Amino acid sequence: MADTLKHRWSIGHNYMTGITFAMWMRLLLENDFHISPPYWHRAAFITAASMMNSLSAAAEKWRYGKAIEAVKVEQSPLFILGHWRSGTTLLHDLLAQDDAQFNYANTYQVVNPMTFLTTENWITRLSPFLVPPTRPMDNMALKFSSPQEDEFAPLLMTLKSLYLGTSFPKREAEYEKFLSFRGANRADVEAWKAALYYFCQKLSLNDGRALLLKSPPHTARIRTILEIFPSARFVHIHRDPYRVFQSQRHFFDTAGWYTYLQRPNLPGIDEGILQRHEAMYDAFYEDLPLIPKGHFCELRFDALEADPAGQMQSVYDQLGLPGFGDYQPKLLRYLDSIKGYRKNDFLNLTEEEKALVYDRWRRSFDLMGYPR
Hints:
Structural class: alpha/beta
Distance between the termini: 37 Å
Low-confidence stretches: none
Radius of gyration: 20 Å
Number of strands: 5
Helix content: 40-55%
CATH class: Alpha Beta
């Protein structure tokens, strides 16, 4: 099997490099210190990085701790919701062009949540080569300054995230409860909420703009998010479920390989994709009525591709967001800059695979308006 392990020697594309030493030891302890031999070098690199992170985190807390705790996140954030590979990154990038209205977490900040105030300026200037020019799963542009999903920040601060199940597949079922927090104890929920709010405080230090936050797992956490930000706004994007399934498969066969610390359970990947979609939308549809009127809107990925400016104006209108006239020229310039982007091509699903996806995700086909 060793010959089939992809990217086994890579230490890049791994969010764990932002963890502190104490949290790394805690994570290893809860996984019985089991790192598969092909990934020992990754664990060694993470260990070395964690020691430096702990020193920087201590300096950052001493320098900024009181100022961070005094920050009030006054403006309600806008949360982008949607299943993985449904277009959340494109929507995030488009909304991020409204830099007069929104502040967002970038790639460096989400993987260095305890140190970015101290280290971001000099590390990003000296080490741009640490981030490849494109993402491994879809060739979208990637930089330290790119808008990035915030899931990694509270993950590294609390170890409460289903993403840890990719790194440690032997305990994947244990980490799955952190998708929606159904089944998690209240202490875990409160720890995650406190970490997310603290990260938002850090982002808002000396910056009063509304936060633009994107993480696919947030789709299953509406009630928990509303406990933190009762007036939060949400925009949900969805896509042809067959395409989502294919693209999520591709993700695990590309980006997933950079994060493993234990041998992956390859035969279980398809079932995991199916189960996570079901759990995500069980929670989503249960929590949807909790969102205040006028604070939620929804769009289709194919409609966004066909008429991005029109769809973005619709989002602004439905959510009552100001300033579309000032935002529109920036949006159009960005759209012009990505005209040459080409999506991945996938082999068609077999009839048996289509039947399985339709059977398991029929609710999404029906409620989101996609034909079988």
